[in-house]
Amino acid sequence: MVVQADMEEPGREDENTEFVGLGCALELFSELDEVLGMIDQLKTIYTTRKAIECAYEKFRCVLTLYQEQPHLLDPHLDTILERIILIIRNKDEPIELKHEAFKYLHVIVKVRGYKVVVRHLPHEVSDLEPVLTMLERQNPKSTDTWETRYALLLWLSIIVKIPFHMTRLDSFQSTPGPSTADDGEKRKTVIQRLVDVCKLYVLVGDSSRFPAAFLASHFFTRSDVKDEHLGPFIAFACEVVGSPKSDMSAQCGALAALAAILKHGSREDLIPHATELLQWLVNSNCRKKDIPLIRQLGMKVVQRIGLTFLKTRVAAWRYNRGCRSLTINLNAGDATRQIGAQQPTQSNPEEVGEDFDIPEEIEEVIEELIQGLQDSNTIVRWSAAKGIGRVTGRLPKELADEVVGSVLELFSEQNSDSAWHGGCLALAELGKRGLLLPQRLGEVVPVVLKALYYDEARGYVSVGAHIRDAACYVCWSFARAYDTEVLRPYVKDIAGALVVVTVFDREINCRRAASAAFQENVGRQGSFPHGIEILTTADYFAVGVRSNAYLNISTFIAQFEEYTLPLIDHLVKYKVDHWDVAIRELAGKALHNITPKSPEYIATCVLPQLLSRTTSIDLNARHGAVLAIAELLHALAVVGKERNQTIQEIIGEKFVQEVCSLVPKFKERGQFRGMGGELMKQACCVLVEKSSLAQMPFHDMSIIDEWQFLLDDCLSNEVATVRTRAVYALPAFLSEYYQHGDAEKCLRRQQGVISCYTGKLKAVNKATRMGFCLAIGSLPGFMLKGRVSSVIEALIGCTEITESTLKWAESRRDAVKALHTITNTIGIAHGNKQSDPGKVNKSLVDAMYSCFLRCLSEYTMDSRGDVGAWVREAAMTALQVLTTLVVKQDPTLLDACVIQKMMADVSQQAVERIDRTRSHAGRVFSSLIHSDPVVPHIPHHTEILQIFTQNLCQEELNWNSAADTFPLFIELLRLESYSASLMLGLVASVGGLTESLVKHSSSALFTHLKHLQQTPEEMRRLCGIILQVLIEWINSERLSDSLLTFLDRLLGSGCVHSVLVDPEVSFSSEILRVVKGVVTRSKDVHKLNRGVDVLCQLVQVPGEVSRRSLTQLLIFLCHRFPTIRTSTAGRLYEALMLYGDDAGLDPTGMEQAMTLISDTEWDQAIEIVRPIRNEICDHMGIPPPKVVQKKSNTSVIS
């Protein structure tokens, strides 16, 4: 049982307690006292809406904990229900309280089930009248009290079973005095009242119609009611279902009532109505209704009519397995030890024989059920399958066998997937009940095995998962139904099929269902080969991960020879050409893993089949075959190496030539073009890679040039996966065919590849640059020997931003990745070996550091957002790799200034906007400060290690959490080498838009600044840095708005108030100067609003700064944009309320000015609001701005 998060409640468990994974681990109902207390508490809180809602949620949460183990409530049900019934029975309690009590009762019913709860409800004669009266007073259409009606109907269903004649319970008969005609019209008998209640509530639209149907089944089958009212009620229900005016709810309720009556009524009472009811149901075409629930209820009615026609009996011919001891079954062994099977138990002597008549209507009933098995909805098919099982169990052997034959006819190619699914469900039901005789297993098992593999592609999806799941259910039911000896002839086929579905099915539910069926067979049959070993590996949870099932579990199972060939054959037949690309890829890898278990079969049988499929017109078959061939060649080569055999000796020269000709044939047929061209290119890249790893004998052959051309073409493809496949294939291809063979030819080829690839780095296509950057990064070391300098310089050139490559962040990212990959491949030259042509020397190290640090400042933006973050993250990784390599090889190559800038820039990235980038920067920063050997020249290394301890960084700190990382990096502000970079990063975060980011970053910064109140020198230093950042970046398109928002939040926090009002510091005046310059020439409404916010914050600075800020704000009151005038008026009013006294304004004049500001509609024409603005200036003692005429006769406000 997994408890959802919304079921937790305050006070029950610690807030960190998780209920996930409890399963069925509860042992007893431990909250009895708490539940009883909540019921008693109803009397005091029912009038308070909030309190009663919280109490109900708490009650629901407690009981829902036992949803998976409801039987734990049984010992306490009487106690709990007694408390609730006590409230309901009390006539003095208000109806609102009773409604809440009924809600609690409904929760109990939902958890434990109505069939159990109803048996614990009181059913005294005295309860009938008050319960019935209360139900009659309810509003059937009310949505607030439906639980009350539900519970009352359920309660009535047990009360009406009292063994007294209903006419004795009419309360008006005991009333003294003569009765009149009017009394007869007003008063109804209890029977009539109950009839009316049943008819009313089976038609309602809420859940009350189901307990109403339950009530009807008990009431109308009473001996004193059935004669007079059963027939009319059945007619009433039929009329409702057949009426075109009846809505869905009414039809469902009426059918549910009919089904319940047919279930609980006696056969003698129902037989007179059965024929007519069946005819009506067939004519009403319930099977063709659009609503699945109506069709399902129709199936229930049909099967119960059939059961009514047939007497209750246990078929003497049924198969009875007899002994079902798991111990005996397991002792049967894993197909290696066999013991005498348990003989089927003989039927009881009182079981009825075969000499009885079968009504003609049964044929029609079975036909309806067979049709129901083909319904489009699962719940209808389930109901029909159960009906087939129940009805067949009362038929003679010959007729039952005909039913089995009819079910088997559903498994034809012409029938729909629904028919196959329904047929599987029916077979499972028949098998469970012993109605599928062993003689039929020869026909049934092949059909079930076929259903286990059913998978029909329809467009981009497939149909068949539900059929395979149902087929697993059939196998599960067979394990419980048949004796070991009966199933022994079919064990090999069933075991192989179940294992195949367990590891190779696409859907997780099918893999798990097959695993469960296999487990059941191992336990019940005891004859499945190697069952225990397989089960311990292929359990319910292990098969949940598809890749694990394909690549690991299948390999383990393939070691058992009974399963090796079935696994291989299934992959080749069904999965290699599967409609899902991912399955085809996994199938090839699975074949690779299984090949060592049967290499001869793979080489002689499987490989020829796959090669023949390469000529198929089906893209899926062609693609899957090439992938599988590639994987098999590699696997066979590995096997051959262990046996000292070449690949030619294993597969033969013929197949070697066929593999060699694959790529040219695909190219000749044009199969690298069109919609499927990308897939075929990917597959052929895999073929090139695996053929190279298999050391196919193609050295110095023309096919090498074909393969090289293919890889080069794929490297410039627009599809990323095609480029990636080519990059993966390139190292193996070059290592095998460009290193071995004719030395001069290999050298020319190597030079040609390097020249071509470095030239492609200047391509005018982004995808081409991306592909060839990654390709150069994947080159093996021998290809770079003597060419390191030219390759690195070309890659560095690719990282530079030009006008034409401004938006190509991905190509720059891949170039950075290639640089650090190459460095990792060939290594760093030691100080005294700088001339080594195969290593990276000091000049190249300096050039790469310069490149990576430049990339750390890239903030390219496009429609996807900050794509420059990809480049920055790659640059941080590259700096980490390069620094680690240099420190291990020769730390003297590191320059102190470079290391200082690197650490500062990385710390800046650790406090910026993007969560992923911050997390990556934090990990890089941690790895650098804790590097072994130690990175030299790190500024303030000792102080940093005190903040970022090794244990904190590696175990405790969550780098993805802003709440954890910001407080730590804020501590670096006191270190001069990091202050400027950190403040620049904090500007972006504190001035950002994301609520959580702003919350954590601003909280950490403002808390740090408040702690500096006692150290004014440090506070002034940080304010100077803020001012420096403002002056340098205010005109930046990326940071301009963030800077203004940062200043607004900083000045409004009060953290820097002491510096802001200090007359000896120019902090506030410089902020005013810079902000005024920005907003005066800006037309950006957003930026103007942010500027107004900062100017309003500067009103708190007494003296000239406040006066100049107010002047600028008053100018904005007549701005040409009405929205700016309106927003400025609102913000100015708030600023005067907060800081008016600090600004030194006359209180009376300020009050009058604020009145004018609030009373004026500032979106009116400027000519209307300008006089009002000037009047405000007079009240505030500020000269009104004047209209200055430019030489171009354009007026501006100054």
From TrEMBL:
Start and end residues of each Tubulin-folding cofactor D C-terminal domain: 900-1087
GO cellular component, one term: lateral plasma membrane
Gene Ontology biological process terms, A to Z: adherens junction assembly; bicellular tight junction assembly; microtubule cytoskeleton organization; post-chaperonin tubulin folding pathway; tubulin complex assembly
InterPro entries linked to this entry: ARM-like, ARM-type_fold, ARM_TBCD_2nd, TBCD, TBCD_C
Annotated GO MF terms: beta-tubulin binding; GTPase activator activity
Superkingdom of source: Eukaryota
Gene3D superfamilies: Leucine-rich Repeat Variant
Matches recorded under Pfam families: ARM_TBCD (PF23579), ARM_TBCD_2nd (PF25767), TFCD_C (PF12612)
Every Tubulin-folding cofactor D ARM repeats domain range: 294-532
Alphabetical UniProt keywords: Chaperone
Keyword Ribosomal protein on entry: no
Name of the protein described by the UniProt record: Tubulin-specific chaperone D
Organism (species): Frankliniella occidentalis (Western flower thrips)
Name of the encoding gene: LOC113206406
